[in-house]
Amino acid sequence: SQVRETKKKILKKSQETKFVPKTKAYFKDFHLSSPILKTLRDFKYEKPTEVQEKSIPLALEGRDLAISAVTGSGKTLAFLIPIFHHLQLRSRKQNSTRVLILTPTRELAKQCFDVSEKFSKYTDIDSVLIVGGKRVDVQANLLENKPEIVIATPGRILDHLLNTRSFGLDKIEMLVLDEADRLLSMGFEKVINRIVSECPKKKQTLLFSATMTDKVEDLTTISLNKPIRISINFQL
Ligand code: ADP
Ligand code: MG
């Protein structure tokens, strides 16, 4: 649509001209660990975007969040920063997958994985990418190593849940549903419900969506516990 094209153009321009968020806050005031601050310095990001400013402090408190914010608003760091903070603060007692990030497409999963890798550089936290179109046996081996973070598309991770014997979600501490509206419009509702049902009840869930449709609300009711709702309008 035309709106989407305009947004794309604005986003492209913002990336060309080194986008500086309008928020007053600085990442250095967020009490983040030094590996996270180092990674942000590598990115040359000093200030959080609006969605990051609003959601990171609440996510760090362990709250469930339902966030609506458009494409390009900086949602990836809004969940990756709290994830790395959490994993570092509570180092693992046992070898297990502790965080699951679900995205609708392979491309989005890969983009998220690339950012996650940057944070991993300064920590011993490992993430893996589990998406369709790649060899199942190779992925099964990756999952056998119990990576702390799994970034996945729903269909393929359900496949492993059912068929990769040592892989389970019973130690999940944080679940991210990224682009929830697209996850649902692509027909993943049942798959997501199944995946959520395999996770422990006691966990933190962060749901992100460009729009809050009725179906996204339903998903929020099913998988989130007393969520705080945050809505950010488009602005750069
Ligand atoms: P979304 O998931 O909301 O579509 P992304 O997380 O992909 O958005 O981020 C969009 C763009 O903004 C990316 O190019 C990213 O590198 C950039 N970005 C994210 N956070 C910041 C920030 N705090 N300062 C400057 N640029 C940022
Ligand atoms: Mg995104």
Automatic annotation (TrEMBL):
Residue span(s) of domain Helicase ATP-binding: 56-230
Location of the DEAD-box RNA helicase Q domain: 25-53
Locus of motif Q motif: 25-53
Family per record: Belongs to the DEAD box helicase family.
Protein name per Swiss-Prot or TrEMBL: Atp-dependent RNA helicase rhle
Species assigned in the record: Anaeramoeba flamelloides
Origin organism lineage: Eukaryota, Metamonada, Anaeramoebidae, Anaeramoeba
Residues of the full protein shown: 150 to 385 of 770
